[in-house]
Amino acid sequence: MAKKEFKQRKQIHLKGFNYSSHECIFFITICTAKKQAYFSNPNICETIINELEYRCAKKEIKLFCYCIMPDHLHILISLEENYTKRKGAFGERTLQNWVSAFKRYTARSIGQMYHVETLWQNFFYDHVVRREESLIDLCSYILNNPVRRGMVSAWEEYPYARMMDGLPRCCIKMWLNQLHAPIKRLFLPFCRRPRLRPSFRLGESSSSERGASAPEGGPHGPEGG
Q1: Residue 183 sits in a domain of what CATH number?
Q2: Which end of the chain has the least Cβ crowding within 10 Å, N or C?
């Protein structure tokens, strides 16, 4: 009997990179299983948002922005020091640990409530934000996913895209200068909040987990989303 050959999987983690660092920012894309449009259900979207906000409140992550598309989720996050300094069941806590826990809990709760058998793909895509990259550009890319898909004419019209208050105030002001006056007024109270000290070191770039190759459209996930 002929010996079966297996294609060698591509190494896609940054070799030697510290994925347990709370000083880096990660652009994460998680797709639904078989690209099913589970997030067309508003109740499921609210469950995802509630879980993200809960994990922010628990000081596991800083969430800079998110966008929930029908078949995938984009988030821009950094791990909190409060999360990384505690040891987990298998040693130090990493980005992969956090994503796995988030996927596991949301899959179980959504599966029970809405009879979804398999919510997520086994892997996810990550991009470690480089020093020269603009957080505003990354947030703009994430938030404008529904615009590129033709779902809305402006991201502010989309109910499941949001810019959070963890982004450094100077970045918000730069972005405000590019907005039209009516939209500016929506963000002005947000910019008057006390300045938050960013605690990140911008690193290098990668895509991630379990030997997954980058999806079409590059490291940011599915093309057009």
Answers
A1: 3.30.70.1290
A2: N
